[in-house]
What we know:
Elements: H1 3-43, H2 46-73, H3 76-100, H4 105-133, H5 139-167, H6 170-189, H7 211-224, H8 226-256, H9 261-284, H10 291-308, H11 311-314, H12 319-351, H13 357-385, H14 388-406, H15 409-415, H16 418-432
Helix pairs in contact: 1-2, 1-5, 1-6, 2-4, 2-13, 3-4, 3-6, 4-13, 5-9, 5-12, 8-13, 8-14, 9-12, 10-12, 10-14
Amino acid sequence: xxxxxxxxxxxxxxxxxxxxxxxxxxxxxxxxxxxxxxxxxxxxxxxxxxxxxxxxxxxxxxxxxxxxxxxxxxxxxxxxxxxxxxxxxxxxxxxxxxxxxxxxxxxxxxxxxxxxxxxxxxxxxxxxxxxxxxxxxxxxxxxxxxxxxxxxxxxxxxxxxxxxxxxxxxxxxxxxxxxxxxxxxxxxxxxxxxxxxxxxxxxxxxxxxxxxxxxxxxxxxxxxxxxxxxxxxxxxxxxxxxxxxxxxxxxxxxxxxxxxxxxxxxxxxxxxxxxxxxxxxxxxxxxxxxxxxxxxxxxxxxxxxxxxxxxxxxxxxxxxxxxxxxxxxxxxxxxxxxxxxxxxxxxxxxxxxxxxxxxxxxxxxxxxxxxxxxxxxxxxxxxxxxxxxxxxxxxxxxxxxxxxxxxxxxxxxxxxxxxxxxxxxxxxxxxxx
Length: 433
């Protein structure tokens, strides 16, 4: 296949991948919104609502390592399409139950578990396939467009979910989700996952690794990649400490500031808007030159924003001023999230060998999923016993210090050796003057 045809095909992948992700993310989030609303409306029980959340989170943590092994061992196209077909069948099953006997909590929980498992396999495999679908120069664009579709779905899904829930019956709602899922299957089936892939061919007669051996090999590979390990540890620290932000933000605005539901929703939406705008910007600009350096200072800025959430607790501000302050703060936070995530993800895509991508990304996802609820539970307890401003400011300082230590200049230079050359050229230029 000629280079021109491959690049044309990569452009097709770029748009197909984005549209497919948008449809599947949008459908999943609208479904999650409607089912959560349905459970609360029918049962009025927070326990039933929480059980559905557990059915969504727990299978992801358990199945992510298996998803990584499968993504590295078998055809990634088959896994992605198979997962999407399983999603369609699960929704079809719930639709059948709703028509025949009416929705039950057991049917909803079972469907949620299946959807969680299929999204884990699809998500890990799709992330592992980026470098096989698009050329190296457009990896940043692919990651930005992927994030843009997820952010757009996050903005629009509550509104669309609320509108549909109020105007159509649950069976019609499920039919719409099924149609979206089938569309995603059709789009994914037209993609060539091996276009730029650099995976090793399986040799006939070669002894096969067991799942345990394969996962051990993934950990061994990670240990040899010091820069990659630094990025992963930073990601895990962020996921844990952001429990302080996630719990504290809602607690401060609703409980301490007594902010109205509509205004609170606008501040939350401002974050998604910031994410979309930054995703669009990164999708059209050239690739950032020093992603770890960019990520380092982006995370420091996020730490400052986290600490700033406590500012209205320390300074007297009028209600409108508080609303405007938090709207700007959340918009900035959304911008920074993409500014940090996209370059780091691009760097990881380029650093990790194709044969290990599934396992590495699944290890990262498993640890992140495990740490996030832990962080939220811990900080939820702390907010009940300690002043909110001190929790946020302490978490902010710890985050900044951890990043400055873990991404110290020697590590950044290890990731970007060209920085030494650039500095050497500058020194020579000064000496010549």
